[in-house]
């Protein structure tokens, strides 16, 4: 099986990199595949304060860079390719990419999730022209401007606080009258003089001619709407959206078992319903989607995959030689 990897990992976020590190250290022939940007969602995070052992001012990109370096140090291979089809039926799993075809004894799916959209008129057209899903990426474009942050969880309030370093005013827009975030996060946000709150409110429409110029808000209790225009001197403003995630698992529909939201179902050992196929990180059904749980998933998936490979393929070799 010269052209067959022991382990192929689809996805290069914290879960995939953790899996790759454990695979390479175990002397498995390991390949990590990523279709676009290494690091997944964490590279858009400006500060990692809740990852055990984080150094002061640690950022998502800096943490990912260290993970990548570790994987390469132990011999994990990395490649850029977009997997367009998979065949998990045989003992050897086949992954078909836009560039190459890959074969593996075991596969770990670590494709993560992407930000959900508001779904209102004008959002798509003005994405990158005032609408953003990444404060770290785009905050500096709105220095001394006004911005709105949509969402009520930890990410919304934390990124809202980050945006106060750039914007002159940040307004948190939330559809309910209470937040879903940790109380400590809410208290910190409310103590920030540059943050205001617009509760029981959703965005109905985003308007602008090539650049964001106004936003139509709707009160969820009264049904009343009002249009808010950018300051004339500014000419524009920002809308940052943090309303949750969508699993990136469409490729695996009909291939592995999923829940109604498209998250892959696994057991505690990261096993899917298909032998030799595992899932780790934000793409699987779980209670908490954080870096610490993603790296945990990746480590478990590889340790269990290693045992699976050893048992499955050593038995087959014995049968051949008998």
TrEMBL record:
PROSITE patterns listed in its UniProt record: PYRIDINE_REDOX_2
Domain of life assignment: Bacteria
Cofactors required: FAD
Domain FAD/NAD(P)-binding residue range list: 5-298
Catalytic activity: [thioredoxin]-dithiol + NADP(+) = [thioredoxin]-disulfide + NADPH + H(+)
Cited Gene3D superfamilies: FAD/NAD(P)-binding domain
Biological process according to GO: removal of superoxide radicals
GO cellular component: cytoplasm
Claim: NADP is one of the keywords in the record: yes
Chain ranges passing through the membrane: none
Co-factor binding details: Binds 1 FAD per subunit.
Entry keyword set: Disulfide bond, FAD, Flavoprotein, NADP, Oxidoreductase, Redox-active center
Record-listed E.C. numbers: 1.8.1.9
Residues making up the signal peptide according to the UniProt record: none
Magnesium found in the keyword field: no
MF terms in GO: thioredoxin-disulfide reductase (NADPH) activity
One Pfam assignment: Pyr_redox_2
Family classification: Belongs to the class-II pyridine nucleotide-disulfide oxidoreductase family.
NCBIfam families: TRX_reduct
Description of how the protein assembles with itself and partners: Homodimer.
Protein name: Thioredoxin reductase
């Amino acid at each position: 099986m010269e052209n067959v990897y022991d382990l192929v990992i689809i996805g290069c976020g914290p879960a995939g990199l953790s899996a790759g590190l454990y695979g390479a250290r175990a002397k498995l022939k390991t390949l990590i595949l990523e279709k676009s940007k290494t690091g997944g969602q964490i590279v858009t995070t400006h500060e990692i304060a809740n990852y055990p052992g984080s150094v002061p001012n640690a950022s998502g990109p800096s943490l990912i860079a260290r993970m990548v370096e570790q994987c390469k140090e132990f011999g994990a291979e990395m490649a850029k390719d977009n997997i367009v089809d998979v065949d998990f039926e045989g003992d050897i799993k086949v992954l078909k990419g836009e560039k190459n075809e890959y074969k593996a004894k075991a596969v770990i799916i670590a494709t993560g999730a992407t930000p959900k959209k508001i779904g209102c008129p004008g959002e798509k057209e003005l994405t990158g022209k005032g609408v953003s899903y990444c404060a770290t990426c785009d905050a500096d474009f709105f220095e001394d401007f006004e911005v709105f942050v949509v969402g009520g969880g930890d990410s919304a309030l934390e990124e809202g606080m980050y945006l106060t370093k750039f914007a002159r005013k940040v307004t948190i827009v939330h559809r309910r009258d209470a937040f879903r975030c940790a109380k400590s996060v809410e208290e910190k946000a409310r103590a920030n003089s540059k943050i205001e709150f617009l509760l029981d409110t959703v965005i109905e429409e985003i308007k602008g001619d090539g650049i964001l110029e106004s936003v139509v808000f709707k009160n969820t209790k009264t049904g009343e709407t009002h249009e808010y225009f950018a300051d004339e001197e500014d000419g524009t403003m920002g809308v940052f959206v943090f309303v949750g995630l969508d699993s990136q698992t469409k490729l695996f529909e009909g291939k592995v078992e999923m829940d109604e939201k498209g998250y892959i179902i696994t057991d505690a050992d990261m096993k899917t319903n298909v032998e030799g196929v595992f899932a780790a990180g934000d793409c699987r059904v779980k209670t908490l989607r954080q870096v610490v749980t993603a790296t945990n998933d990746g480590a478990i998936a590889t340790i269990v995959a290693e045992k699976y490979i050893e048992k499955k393929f050593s038995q087959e070799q014995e049968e051949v030689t008998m």
